[in-house]
Design goal:
By secondary structure, the chain is mostly helical. Helix content is 47%, strand content 8%. The longest helix has 30 residues. The chain starts with a helix and ends with a helix.
Length: 287
């Protein structure tokens, strides 16, 4: 059995209880795993690629642990083509095997585009372009330059590394400066995040203007979620996103005062008024 055959034979709802127990830190992001699962089920495996996923139980520990090796977040076409080989006498639960395969495949992103973007950010540092990004970068540079040499060095890629140090030996003025720097850094990080969001929402491809979303700089708190409708055809695409919000995301939407929703579609299949109005009404009922 290949990885693709395993995922095809098991529905996402069947492995959902196991995923919730395993991914406790991602309980609010379960909908992302559903999107990935549906993407994987629609990808054709590379039949010219031959390799194996090894599955076995580690019985040397006090508790029995399922080990799955040689499946990673690389080219999904190749990973789906791998044969699943079970070692040992204990037969594993295929639902758990499917969940663990899904978990490993999403290590660097929830889609091939996001995976490549994550890897690109890991190895390529882009120069800041927005106002708060530049201010944060300058602050980090000043902090770096004022650190004693014994607490800082450069790694092999030229990135600055700070060694953890104790503030107990610092005098009162240095502790105050360190506290102010920390407060300033946290503020700039928050504003840089919001500035990037405002820039994204008011881009040339969006129907929002800068004035429409400028208020986001002054809100108390915010959350951002991205949904992908993994459907084919127009009939069910907005309902897919609605199901992600209601069934596969643990979130109390009543806690929010307002929401901004940016919907992106293919120019060939724009959203019609009836489809959009129905989605709006469902969102109003949630909040």
């Amino acid at each position: 059995m290949t990885v693709k055959e395993l995922l095809t034979n098991i529905s996402f709802d069947e492995l959902l209880p196991i995923l919730k127990k395993y991914a406790t830190d991602h309980i609010h992001d379960i909908y992302i795993f559903r999107e990935v699962y549906d993407i994987l089920k629609n990808i054709e495996p590379n039949d010219d690629y031959h390799d194996e996923v090894i599955v076995y139980y580690n019985v040397m520990l006090e508790y029995r642990s399922l080990i799955i090796s040689n499946i990673k977040s690389s080219a999904w076409e190749n990973e789906l083509a791998k044969d699943i080989v079970v070692k040992g006498t204990i037969q594993p639960d295929l639902h758990e095997v499917a969940m663990r395969c899904l978990w490993n495949l999403t290590m660097y992103g929830s889609s091939p585009i996001k995976r490549d973007d994550t890897i690109d950010k890991m190895f390529n540092i882009n120069n800041p372009t927005l106002h708060y990004e530049k201010a944060l970068n300058k602050l980090d540079e000043r902090i770096w330059k004022h650190l004693p040499r014994r607490y800082r060095y450069w790694d092999i890629n030229g990135n600055p590394i700070v060694i953890k140090y104790s503030v107990k030996r610092m005098n009162r003025s240095k502790k105050k400066r360190l506290y102010r720097q920390k407060q300033r850094e946290e503020y700039l990080e928050l504003m840089a995040t919001r500035e990037a969001l405002v820039s994204y929402l008011s881009s040339s491809e969006s129907s929002f203007s800068y004035k429409d979303v400028e208020f986001l700089f002054h809100i108390k708190d915010h959350s951002r979620y991205e949904y992908i409708s993994v459907t084919y055809g127009k009939d069910n695409r907005m309902n897919y996103i609605l199901q992600s919000m209601i069934k596969y995301q643990r979130n109390n939407w009543k806690n929010y005062d307002s929401a901004i929703i940016l919907i992106r579609t293919s120019p060939k299949f724009p959203i019609d008024k009836l489809e959009l109005e129905l989605f709006k009404n469902n969102i109003y009922q949630l909040m």
